[in-house]
Amino acid sequence: MKTQPIIRSLLDTDLYKLTMMQTVLHQFPAAEVEYTFKCRNADVSLKPYAAEIKAQIKALCELRLTENELHYLAGIYYLKPDFIQFLKLFQLNEQYVRIGEDERGQLTITVAGPWLHTIMFEVPILAIVEEVYSRNEYAKVDLKEGQRRLMEKTEAIKKHPLREHFKLMEFGTRRRFNREWHCHVLEHLKRSVKSNLVGTSNMYLARELDLLPLGTMAHEYLQAFQALGPRLIDSQKMALETWTKEYRGDLGIALTDVVGIDAFLKDFDRYFAKLFDGVRHDSGDPFTWAEKMIDHYKKLGIDPKTKTLVFSDGLNIPLAFELLEKFYDVTNIVFGIGTNLTNDVGVTPLSIVMKMTKCNGQPVAKISDSPGKTMCKDETYLAYLNNVFNAS
């Protein structure tokens, strides 16, 4: 019996893939990149599922955006007409994906080709791997436990004394238990805590459930400028400048941890701090990060209450409320919660990523504020990057 495709629409991805893709189309259409998949679960082998994953990626590459989907995208004011015309022709190409195994017999997935034509692979491939693993390892899981946990979360939101200040963004596409559960979670959130749900990163579900699609940039965007820019030391500034050139004040949340928060703050001067609406946290201690950002805004003569801090690193509801209690009266706070919403059903989810590791033939890397999150194939380059940004 033929297995149903896991990804059934090219919109079943995160908004920031499209916002970055538009920037690539306009600014760097000839850039060539490589992405590398990594499973951080030491006790998990995905090799038995290689054929199924490959078949799902093949099905993904048969998809095209429908006229209704294109009409929806055309209604998003910061997506430009020429980009919509490009998307009418767009289709993922299976030839850019290589599936194999490393020297330890672990599954490898590499995507290599033009950035413009490969940028849309990451999110659906991660969702495919997670769901293939879940349907094989946890075929008989009782989702009543997941429902109990979900209701526990929404009840905690309803009862919290600072509920009116709690702003939630759903960020769980890449590591969801499966697509049906993802939809159920969002429907429940919309029904139970509608006033707290700001929106979702998932374009398909935003359209289906009449929610606001949310997202700006990912690590790959800033990483690419390590190879695209004239000088490595200026790569973050060039990335931020290019973003402002593309969006002219829209989508103003900057990502802070590509070469560490301290190096970011050196580049995030008064010009950028005033141009961008806020910043997003994705590694390192969130309390320390928030204090550094608030102090930075104050030193620049900017009222932190006029800026937004987005927390999105492995969050759960209790931690989000701890952060809210600490900072809600100092700055505007939003919480992007992913895996803890879409893959908290009583089993252990995979910890999987797919990161850009090359751009235009050169190594690129993220120097994470969290130990173990740094990912680079070239240790010499990583040392050089650390040295240039004093991030070690």
Identify the CATH architecture of the domain at 144-342.
Answer: Alpha-Beta Barrel
In DSSP terms, counting alpha (H) and pi (I) runs of 4 or more, how many helices?
17
> Secondary-structure element order, as H and E?
HEHHHEEHHHEHEHHHEHHEHEHEHEEH
Name the shape in a single word. globular
Mean pLDDT: 95
Strands ordered across the widest β-sheet = 5-4-9-8-7-6
Question: Residue ranges: pLDDT <50 for 5 or more in a row?
Answer: none
Distance between the termini: 53 Å
Kindly provide the name of the CATH class of the domain at 144-342. Alpha Beta
CATH superfamily of the domain at 144-342, by name, is nicotinate phosphoribosyltransferase
Largest sheet: 6 strands, parallel
CATH topology of the domain at 144-342: nicotinate phosphoribosyltransferase
The number of strands is 11
Q: In which range does the helix fraction lie?
A: 40-55%
